[in-house]
Amino acid sequence: MWKIKQIFDGDYGCEETCSETGQVKEPMVSVTLVEENTGENGKEPIKYVTVPDRFLTEHGLEEGSDWRLADQKPPKEYAFWGWENANVLAVSNDYPGIRTPWDLYDALSEIWCSETCAPRMRDGWTKENKTLGQCSITAFLAQDIFGGKIYGILRAGGNYHCYNVIGDCAFDLTSEQFGSEKLDYTENPEQSREVHFAKEEKRLRYEYLRQQLKKYCNKTNEVWREGISAS
Q1: Which among 114, 130, 157, 203 is least buried, having the fewest CB atoms inside 10 angstroms?
Q2: Is 95 helix (H, G, I), strand (E, B) or coil?
Q3: pTM for this structure?
């Protein structure tokens, strides 16, 4: 789990103190995050994010706090496994508007398509079964945003179904494809992007999904800014 190590404002020169949002200026702060479990060579993994100052205040986040919305319930009911406690926060500012796995699921629901589906499953992909064949590229994209590790459930045929674990928070954004089948999320092997992306077609699908998410976030952010300016 990521924890807040330090919080800086513009006086420290880490970030601009205000973010332009039309006619509105909002104080911003820079947050240094460290992962509880040390990484390779005993070094603490470190991430830096920038958020509105009011965001920390509203959610009672301070130095030493877990980087999660412990005080917030999901905005609605979801169907993916682990949704009830998927309250970890993004450790990247690369995708504006994506702060939680809930946000990511909502965005990807507009993006998943037959082109991002694994080729062997593509004939069965539909908008009603939008998570079919999307597991590994989705899990690695979620890792880009939230950190943590990816584990795989061995399936018939030797493939692994991938899901995310960040500290004590585990979730599977693409579990709906299995319907009522109960998957075992315990004691599964960790998955490596080097192994998965050794398959060129999978790496290209991941790159495409990532690009489409950035386009979606930028477009959504522009609409939000236009709304602020108009008001």
Answers
A1: 157
A2: coil
A3: 0.86
